[in-house]
Structures are given as C-alpha cells and as structure tokens.
C-alpha cells in the first residue's frame, strides 16, 4: 500500500510523533499472543486468517458512506482492543510501540490513549494507566524515547461518562499542582465524530485547562460537518480561545476563514497523510497538503493507527509527504522542527532534538 522505500535521509531524521493512538499500534502478532494468554476468542482460526483481516479496505464511516459489507475502521480497531486486559498487556503494547519508535529515530512522542474503551469492557482504569506509566518510565531508559501522553474522551460516549473517566485518571496526570504521577499532560478526543462536535465536551476541556493540561482537538477528514468542527476548534472551544493543536483538520482548506484562523492563533495541524491516502487519490490529496504548506499553515507528519493502516508508520508517512508533495530535505527538516515546536515537551528535550536535527541538516550540505 505504501510502495515507497524509506529514503535514508527520512530514516535518519530525528522524529517527534504527535498523533498516534497507542491501541492503533497493536500488531497482529501481539494481538494473537494476548488473545491466547487471556483466553479471548478471536473470529480467526489461524494467524494467517487474522493477518488477512487487515488487508480489507475499511468502510470509512457507515453513517457517511453507507454499508458496503466491510467493517469500519473503528470496528476493527475496537475489536483489536478486546485482547488488552491486564496491566502487563498495556505495558507490553506501549513498550513494543516505544521500541518501534526508537527503530525509526523517534526521540519524543505524545501517544493518545483512553480508558473508556477498556473500562466499558470491565477492565479497571488502573490497569491501563499503570501499564502505560511503567512503559513511559522504562521506555525512556531502555529505548531512550521520551513520552508525554494524551488522555482522550471517547466523543461518541456521553460527556458525563467522559468526565467520570477523566476524574478517575487525574492522579496519573501532570497537573499544575505538581501532585500527579506525570503520565499525561493533555486531553483530546477520539472515536466517532459523526454528530459529535467538539463543543459537546467544552466543560471537560475547561476542567482540563484548570488542571493545567493542554488541549488538542481531533477533526477527522471529510466527516459530516467537518468544516464546522474545525471552526469550533479554532474559534469556540476553551471559552473561545481555541484548541492548542488540531489533529488532522485537512478540511480547514474548505472555508476561507479557517486558514487565517489557524495562522493568527498559531494552531498547528498533526497530519497523517497515509490515513487520507487510503481514501483520496494521490493527485487530490498531496496538492492539499502542499497548499497548507504554501499558505504558511504549521503542520507536522504522523502515523495515526499504523497497524490498522497497512503498517505505514511515521517514517512511511514522512516519506509520502517528501515524495508526493515535492518537499526538499530542508522542508522535511522544517516539518520536524514544526513538530518540536508544536509539542509540549520540556525545553531540554526540545533543545536536544533541534540540535540533532541541525547536525543532520549541516552534514547534508
Ligand atoms: N481512535 C483511534 N484511532 C482513531 C481514528 N483514526 N479516528 C478516530 N478515533 C480514533
Ligand atoms: Zn487520530
């Protein structure tokens, strides 16, 4: 599906990932292993059948596209989540991701996670949070990949449910009172956006801001009301101040006030080109990304849900942008710099990555 060799320059770039759902990194191999370890039945008799199930083109959203008999992406993704049961499972998932991140020269990452997809299956939130916390600490030492995580509200669940999940998770946050365990430092949204605009969760965003957390907003591409959701994210959420980042947000190109809004408010987009390339032709998609660049919109390149998206990770996504947008090596370095600047890493981490990037760019001259 990718069909592109990763250029050595792209491979060598020190990377920052700001848009990856941790459960979207669950490999078929780990899924198979955990299903057996936890006695979770899978609807596949053999490992090969499980692998084959990833080869379908998912229905983007049944509400938007109608039923073509294929599962939606979210159905496949939540089916994968079923095998995650114990603290050790969440730890292994995160450690595998951090190991993979290290192999791609990712130096710093802000993975999305949620507890609601797991607590509604009867898994205690502590198992999720402690597993990720342990991996955050061990991964920084073992793989030298630092991470600050992002708690997501499942937007197709109620605000009340989300608030309850948030309150339960708060002791694991890095709150401004310095009391938390330091796993996550931001909140965002995940799951099905259909008829679930960001403003439904305004109370939760205000609470998170009061607790000293950052706020980012998922605005999926070509959803019903996508343009309105981007508008809310720029101009309405957080008492009109807007979100600090927008995840995806490609439809900002579709209404004239949105690009100026992104720029004047300094809101960057976390783009995931391969996720869109699954559904948009090369000639349609990459000129849009190029237009954002030419308009001066800040963005970085990320992976979203790599194991459910043909195993295309951040390096494959960067390669697609490099190849299909006609970006130069200097442009790709700027995209990494954007990611550093859009991140909420500490200044020391940012400085180290920027220094490494500068060294690489100078060696290329
Ligand atoms: N949760 C995990 N991956 C997601 C995606 N790509 N869109 C919406 N919610 C998600
Ligand atoms: Zn996403």
UniProtKB/TrEMBL annotation:
Gene Ontology terms: cellular component: cytosol
Keyword terms, alphabetized: Hydrolase, Metal-binding
Protein name from the UniProt record: Adenosine deaminase domain-containing protein
Keyword Cell cycle on entry: no
Cofactor list: Zn(2+)
Domain Adenosine deaminase: 14-357
Biological process terms in GO annotation: adenine catabolic process; hypoxanthine salvage
Top-level taxon: Eukaryota
Gene Ontology molecular function, alphabetical: adenine deaminase activity; metal ion binding
InterPro entries, per the entry: A_deaminase_dom, Ado/ade_deaminase, Metal_Hydrolase
The keyword Cytoplasm appears for this protein: no
Pfam name, any one: A_deaminase
